[in-house]
Amino acid sequence: MSGGGLILPLRTNQGDVLTLDANKDLQWLLPGDPGTIGTFFVFNEIPVGAVNGINLSFRTANKFLTGKLQVYLSGAQLTGLGSEKNFVEHVDLQGFTIIIGTSPQSVKEPPRQNELLTVAYIRDI
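The structure assignment produced for this chain is given below.
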């Protein structure tokens, strides 16, 4: 969860916990094995890094599991797998780099200031 602040937990009848913090990050805590915290799903997080038409590298607020990062640019999900991938995960650095490409599905330029960049991922806890 980025930032910090007021956290509002909501418990479902299956034992799941949804939390919403003051920064509007939604996290879903699933019950884990006895003695574990569970798995967090993070949605709609704005990554750390300048969105300025130049920068291509960004960081998440939390560590994430390999292959479980989703990146969205102006609402469109970028591809992180295969030959047409639009970003590369850096799990050890808790971030990712957007790849500029020339194919029709590629990102053509770094995210500009008026574009919304968000991420969703499963936290590594």
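Interim note for the steering committee: The chain has one domain: 7-123. The CA atoms of residues 52 and 82 lie 27 Å apart.
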